[in-house]
Specification:
This protein has 265 residues and is an alpha+beta fold. Helix content is 17%, strand content 50%. β2 and β3 form a beta hairpin. The longest helix has 22 residues.
């Protein structure tokens, strides 16, 4: 019809305007019909009134061959050395996707990474993730993280002669119980700073990032060791019963943090 009108009654300029109008209208209709790009699946966890221990120690790179998948680069801490990370945190209130808050503990073992996306103050690849929160475990399992639910996970900080004494007992996987034990010191008053930590995991579901933003983090020194059976999965990674954390060993405290978990397929 439009072609007939253009050929019999319209000027060339009018015909061009009609064609452009029709083309733009069709293009707009086509764009509107396209589904909007879907954001990566995500959820948030809120942590309040927390203390933690975090340690970073050297480990022979040969011990983690095959444990850090392609797409990640383990940070180097000397010739042939990478960094193993141990973390345990206890929070008075943990809220998963807006759930009612409850006490919760997490324990993590990982390998320190060169930042995959250029963000965060520290980036780690997850080897073990354990929690006593069934809500947190269930959500992370949905996103493909092989979480271990340990309802009896122990995290204690008790007074000692000259400092505080930390004791953590973790049933990581079958046959892989490990312990963190040593002295920790409260952070100096007023020494707070913002801190962002990313933990990654890649599996059959996709690439998972757990990004925890802490607006005000305080850290004090610690002297803590990790202990496990030599023939456990963790002991085989360490090639030892025991390791310490000369690169970083600290007691952390923070009143509030938000972890955003995203999954890229």
């Amino acid at each position: 019809m439009n072609a007939l009108i253009c050929s019999t009654r319209a000027t060339a300029a009018g015909c061009l305007r009609s064609a452009l109008t029709l083309g733009l209208a069709l293009a707009a209709t086509s764009i509107a019909a396209q589904p909007a790009p879907r954001a990566p699946p995500s959820f948030t966890v809120v942590f309040d009134d927390c203390t933690e221990f975090a340690g970073l120690g050297p480990l022979a790179a040969t011990q983690v061959e095959g444990l850090v998948p392609p797409g990640y680069t383990a940070a180097a801490f000397g010739p042939g050395l990478v960094g193993i990370v141990a973390r345990a945190a206890r929070c008075e209130r943990v809220s998963v996707v807006g759930s009612s808050a409850e006490k919760g503990t997490v324990a993590q073992i990982g390998i320190n990474l060169v930042s995959p996306d250029g963000t965060a103050d520290i980036n780690n690849y997850t080897l073990m993730y354990v929690t006593d929160s069934w809500r947190l475990a269930e959500r992370l399992l949905r996103f493909g993280l092989p979480v271990r639910l340990d309802p009896k996970l122990v995290y204690e900080v008790n007074p000692a002669a000259s400092a505080l004494e930390l004791y953590v007992q973790v049933d990581a996987i079958a046959g892989a119980t490990y312990f963190l034990y040593g002295s920790v010191t409260e952070p100096a008053p007023g020494a707070q700073f913002p801190f962002l930590a990313n933990w990654y995991y890649s599996g059959r579901v996709g690439r998972l990032r757990m990004s925890t933003q802490i607006p005000a983090f305080a850290a004090g020194p610690a002297d803590v060791g990790l202990y496990t059976a030599r023939d456990s999965s963790l002991g085989r990674i360490l090639a030892a019963n025991h390791t310490v954390f000369p690169l970083l060993s600290m007691r952390g405290k923070f009143s509030h943090a938000v972890m955003t978990v995203t999954l890229a397929r």
